[in-house]
Write a structure and sequence with these properties.
With 424 residues, the chain is of the alpha/beta class. The protein has 13 helices and 19 strands. 34% of the residues lie in helices and 22% in strands. The strands form five sheets. Strands 2-1-3-4-5-6 form a six-stranded parallel beta sheet, sandwiched between helices. Strands 15-16-17-19-18 form a five-stranded mixed β-barrel. Strands 7-10-11 form a three-stranded parallel beta sheet, sandwiched between helices. Helix 3 links the parallel strand 4 and strand 5. Helix 9 runs parallel beside helix 11. The longest helix is centred in the last third of the chain and has 24 residues.
């Protein structure tokens, strides 16, 4: 069989798809190797932002120049099939990851194949290779129920199709039995889980909590619009010991007019009501949000409103993006804002983030408790997460990866809390 290397761009859902494709390739007798050694490259692509697509094109050109056989998978072939750079390459869509083995074999035999058909593939119990042995990214649905005017991912992933709760619970149960300590629930929008089947994310979390093992669940991005109807139940589910006190709630803009132009489906007041309700029930919950700077209809006054909302909500982390006019989206057809203005707004938002996040992280100084180490840092440092998924950094000459340790927070930066080890 062949030697294959997998390149992954994009979100946790894409990473989970790559792990599945690697598992299937191994099961079918292929071997996973480095890029230089590979006979075939599987390039699992992302179409979320302009710079990501630019990086994809540059890398694809280099692979072509090196004579590599490339199977382009993921969101780009699904949503941008006419892209000229894809010519001559086999293409595998987001709903066809289970076909990766035959796609590699046939491509190496000289065929150029296109398989981008839509299907309701339940992928969570397919074979996979974990990138990190103690972390499992578990997709709970495909697609979303929104129609945001700036988003290209919807073109690739389609409408929401939720996976059965019993399959998700079985997957997680098997994973934690194998030693996994962190479960990352992932999708394009976790808040819509089960809504087409008269269930919801809160009920799924309750079912997952029934697994009698020591593990934590991190809930991925959830759109404010769809969680409002079941908010009390969701907050109750987040209070369970098995769930990290971490909420990824994208704001995108602090102006109701811009939110309407984005077709986000909620108002600033509704967004803040969710933040307030979670913080009332779970005071030290970590809240992550997303901000787009320079959406076409965003005026200077609109941007000032966004700054004000960020100051009020005091998020722990912000994913700050410059607006990129993605091909095929309604926002691309709008009159665009000058690049220099967008750059300045991005700078101001970044400065505000560091100020707000530093203040939030300082609130943890003096806290003592358990931290699970999930990443090696530099210069003898180790990065871990506490019960609120707050990043905590410690120093140790010992390898702490995958261990739970007791620490005391003694300092903070805008990116993390600094701690001393109390006990291993």
């Amino acid at each position: 069989m062949s030697k294959v290397h997998v390149i992954t761009q994009g979100c946790t859902a894409n990473q989970a798809d790559s792990e599945i494709m690697q598992g299937l390739l191994l099961e079918q007798g292929h071997s996973l190797v480095g890029e230089d050694e590979a006979e075939a490259i599987v390039y699992n692509s992302c179409s979320v932002k302009g710079p990501t697509i630019t990086a994809f094109k540059k890398k694809l050109k280099l692979l072509r120049e090196r004579g590599k056989k490339v199977i382009v998978a993921g969101c780009i072939p699904q949503s941008n099939r006419a892209m000229k750079e894809l010519s001559g390459h086999s293409l595998l869509g987001t709903d066809q990851v289970d076909k990766i083995g035959e796609m590699v074999t046939d491509t190496l035999d000289g065929q150029v194949l296109v398989n981008v058909e839509k299907s309701d593939l339940i992928r969570i119990n397919l074979p996979k290779v974990r990138t990190v042995s103690f972390i499992e990214a578990v997709p709970i649905l495909q697609g979303c129920l929104s129609s945001c005017t700036f988003c290209k991912t919807k073109h690739a992933r389609g409408n929401a199709f939720s996976y059965p709760a019993h399959d998700i619970v079985r997957k997680i149960s098997n994973s934690v039995r194998d030693g996994v300590k962190e479960i990352w629930l992932t999708s394009q929008d976790n808040s819509v889980y089960g809504l087409e089947n008269d269930t919801n994310l809160a009920e799924l979390l309750d079912a997952i909590d029934s697994i009698d093992r020591d593990f934590k669940v991190r809930v991925g991005m959830a759109n404010p619009k769809h969680m409002l109807p079941y908010l009390p139940a969701l907050i109750s589910a987040f209070q369970r010991d098995s769930v990290y006190k971490f909420l990824h709630l994208p704001l995108q803009a602090g102006s109701d007019g811009v939110l309407e132009d984005m077709k986000r489906g909620y108002t600033v007041d509704e967004f803040m009501s969710i933040v307030t309700a979670f913080r009332k029930a779970i005071p030290m919950i970590s809240i992550s949000t997303d901000i787009i700077c320079g959406f076409p209809t965003e005026t200077d006054a609109d941007f000032e409103k966004t700054l004000a909302v960020v100051e009020e909500m005091r998020p722990d982390t912000i994913n700050i993006s410059r607006f990129w006019p993605m091909e095929g989206t309604p926002a691309r057809r709008m009159k665009q804002i000058e690049g220099g203005v967008i750059k300045d707004r991005t700078r101001r938002m970044t400065e505000l983030f560091h100020s707000v996040a530093l203040a939030r992280n300082k609130e943890w100084i003096g806290w003592s408790g358990a931290v699970f180490i999930d990443e090696e840092g530099t210069h003898g440092s180790w990065k871990g997460r506490n019960y609120a998924y707050k990043q905590v950094v410690v120093q140790s000459s010992e390898n702490l990866l995958g261990k739970s340790i007791m620490v005391k927070v003694v300092d903070a930066s805008s990116l993390d809390a600094k701690a001393e080890i109390v006990a291993r």
